[in-house]
Write a structure and sequence with these properties.
Elements lengths: L10 H17 L2 H4 L7 H16 L1 H8 L8 H30 L5 H18 L1 H25 L17 H13 L3 H8 L8 H26 L9 H8 L9 H26 L5 H22 L8 H21 L4 H8 L1
Helix pairs in contact: 1-7, 1-9, 1-10, 1-12, 3-8, 3-10, 4-9, 4-14, 5-6, 5-12, 5-13, 6-12, 6-13, 7-12, 8-14, 10-11, 11-12, 12-13
Length: about 350
């Protein structure tokens, strides 16, 4: 039987954290960052992205199995810390953009960025145990809300809207695959948090990828089947799908979307700030978390105020993804010596 250890999380917790982390990316800004029409071939991009994500996760998985971590090299850990901060800024900016254009169009995006950044610092300071406990509740809320929205939209489901299957050209489909795959930061999060798992971490990680992409597939399937050609006109088609869902006299099911999106982006921001602190070692925990949250805030404000979301090329995500999630783990497997200290800790 696995015993509880301080500053450790259960394998199921890593599943919750990675599921929330990945699905939050797809809940907003789908239409503004994908290319072509929102049609059935977007589902092909989802399935292809799932397969590529699993394949590209192999270097991180083998690093975990071989006890070879790129974070053991200080200067490499420093650059990983910057990557985590950059990802935190990107995700905070997405929420700020969504909140300032949809939830409250009269508000300023930077205000939401400040709030999320402060919460990210506080959550990272509390540590991974507190975050894992909270993630179980958010997973239940998120999973339940998605099922409710899908069930309530069954009456709006029109199979005819799924045809023709292929409407976009090959370049658009490939660009969507590149974006969806490079948005998967979960493999590098797994690489960072694998030592924090009190048990086997590979199976929860793999299942988090499969289950998450399956849920994304279902959501986009319903979006296309419900709205048809009109889906391409919606800035946030998944949010629109929640707005169309009704339960009897209750017509504001979209409040579920807003609530779990707020909690989900909080967990992802905390997770990334916390990982940035792990990757960069030569500072106190509170100082690292504060600096990471502050830099992430600057990145988020710059992206929200000075950059149009729909003008960002998928290459901006693909290049750092390739470097930190594939190239460096592969080089670590080839050149780094095995960390026997981890093996002794695991045995005793």
């Amino acid at each position: 039987m696995t015993q509880a250890k301080r500053d450790k999380i259960a394998p199921i917790s890593i599943f919750f954290l990675l599921f929330i982390s990945r699905i939050v990316v797809s809940l907003t800004n789908v239409q503004s960052v994908t290319t072509g029409l929102m049609q059935t071939d977007i589902l092909i991009s989802v399935l292809a992205s799932m397969g590529l994500t699993l394949i590209f996760s192999l270097p991180a998985i083998y690093c975990y199995k071989k006890h070879k971590s790129p974070f053991d090299v200080k200067w490499v850990g420093f650059f990983y810390s910057l990557y985590f901060i950059y990802l935190a800024g990107v995700n905070i900016s997405r929420f700020s953009y969504f909140a300032s254009t949809t939830i409250n169009p009269n508000s300023q995006g930077w205000i939401y960025s400040v709030v999320v950044a402060v919460c990210a610092f506080y959550g990272a300071y509390l540590g991974i145990e507190a975050l894992s406990r909270f993630s179980a509740f958010i997973f239940a809320l998120l999973f339940g809300s998605i099922l409710v929205a899908l069930f309530c939209n069954l009456k709006n489901y029109q199979e005819i809207n799924l045809y023709p299957v292929i409407t976009n050209n090959t370049d658009d489909i490939l660009r969507n695959i590149v974006f969806m795959t490079s948005s998967s930061s979960e493999m590098v999060i797994f690489l960072c948090l694998s030592k924090k798992v009190n048990g086997k971490a590979v199976k929860p990680f793999v299942w988090s990828v499969i289950v998450t992409f399956f849920m994304i597939f279902l959501l986009l399937l319903f979006v296309v089947a419900i709205m048809g050609d009109a889906a391409s006109l919606q800035a946030f088609p998944l949010y629109t799908m929640f707005q169309l869902a009704k339960i009897g006299i209750f017509e504001r099911i979209d409040v579920l979307y807003i609530s779990f999106w707020i909690f989900g982006v909080f967990i992802k921001a905390v997770l990334l700030v916390y990982c940035a602190g792990i990757a960069f070692k030569p500072m106190k925990k509170s100082v690292k978390n504060a600096v990471s949250a502050m830099i992430a805030l600057v990145v988020a404000v710059c992206l929200t105020e000075f950059v149009q979301v729909n003008s960002i090329s998928p290459v901006v995500y693909a290049i750092p993804f390739s470097l930190f999630c594939i190239v460096i783990p592969v080089l670590t497997l080839i050149f780094k010596k095995r960390n026997f200290g981890d093996e002794l800790v695991e045995k005793f």
